[in-house]
Amino acid sequence: MEPPLVVALIVVAIAAFALIRTIRIVPQATAGIVERLGRYHRTLLPGLNLVVPFIDRIKGTIDLREQVVSFPPQPVITSDNLVVSIDTVIYFQVVDPRAATYEIANFLTGVEQLTVTTLRNVVGGMDLERTLTSREEINTELRGVLDEATGKWGIRVNRVELKAIDPPASIQDSMEKQMRADRDKRAAVLAAEGQKQAAILTAEGQKQAVVLKARGEAEAAVLKAQADAEAKAMRAKGEADAIAMVFKAIHEGKPDQQLLAYQYLQTLPQIAKGDANKVWIVPSEMGKALEGLGGLFSHMTGESGGVVPASGANGAGPEVAGGPDTAGRDAHGREVSGREVPGKDG
């Protein structure tokens, strides 16, 4: 091979190599750090970039996406001298590739160690119970401290999460017993309150039932009394109207003394009726009634001149005549005077 041809091939190879070293393609969401003669020159953006071969050197590329890093459990001592194991998760993002490259040798290790120390400082001022119930507070304090400390490294901490807080096994057993005792206590209190409310409601129901029953009985008694009073009033009014009608009829008929005596004698058997009438006391008006009735009989006999039926106390006496020269006894053994006349049977 001739020397000119060899030289030409070497020149072409050098040119091709220089061209390859000149063109740099940076992927999306990444950044490249360019050093010129050992010093920071510029940051390559995503896409096609040109550099000076043999003078510029790409130190490396940095991922600009948000990264999630989970650190192993770290033992932390609380303010009440209990050791708890805490797992943390950090969400961060590189916002300044130059600072992340030159301000710290390994920003990932720096973030991890800073998280551990900050976590111990924050949890060290809390007791166990507060540590277990204050996750949000711990996350906020961790994020604030980490974001401030990593700002000069070109890193922004977006979120800090505590995955787990594990107290010692003995403490967990004691906490479970305490929680169980609290639940049993609350259950007993709720059961007692339920029984109390049930007893109160039952007593109120019984009270209302008694009140309603008494009120109903009182209203029934009032209504019954009103009904009885109205019935008695109507009955008395009816009797009064009947008496008034009888009284009016008697006065319109203009009865004489003999008729009244006769009606009085007819009323006497009704007075004697009844099982309770063991003794019958003859009223003092009996004699006057008999006198009036005798006068009635004498008057009727004198007018007819014959025999008229004489009524005794029960209105069923024998037939006698009113003649002055005749005397005898009736069926009841009473003496009667008058003139005998033939009877019904001759």
Structure characterization notes:
By secondary structure, the chain is α+β, with helices and mostly antiparallel strands. 53% of the residues lie in helices and 21% in strands. The protein folds into four domains: 3-63, no CATH class; 67-167, Tetrahydropterin Synthase, Chain A (2-Layer Sandwich); 169-217; 269-337, no CATH class. It is built from eight helices and twelve strands. α3 (107-124) packs across α5 (135-149) and α7 (257-272) packs across α8. It is rod-shaped. It starts with a helix and ends in a 9-residue tail after the last strand. Residues 304-346 have low confidence and may be disordered.
Annotate the secondary structure layout:
Elements: H1 3-22, E1 23-26, E2 30-36, E3 39-44, E4 47-50, E5 56-63, E6 67-77, E7 83-94, H2 97-102, H3 107-124, H4 128-133, H5 135-149, E8 155-166, H6 169-253, H7 257-272, H8 286-304, E9 308-309, E10 319-320, E11 327-329, E12 335-337
Antiparallel strand pairs: 1-4, 2-3, 2-5, 6-7, 7-8, 9-10, 11-12
Largest sheet: 3 strands, antiparallel
Count the beta strands: 12
Beta percentage is 15-25%
The CATH superfamily name of the largest domain is Band 7 domain
Which fold name fills CATH's third level, the topology of the largest domain? Tetrahydropterin Synthase, Chain A
Total discrete domains: 4
Mean pLDDT across residues:
77
N-to-C order of helices and strands: HEEEEEEEHHHHEHHHEEEE
Give Rg in angstroms: 68 Å
Provide the structure class: alpha+beta
Domain Band: 21-179
Pfam families: Band_7
Keywords: Membrane, Transmembrane, Transmembrane helix
Protein name: Paraslipin
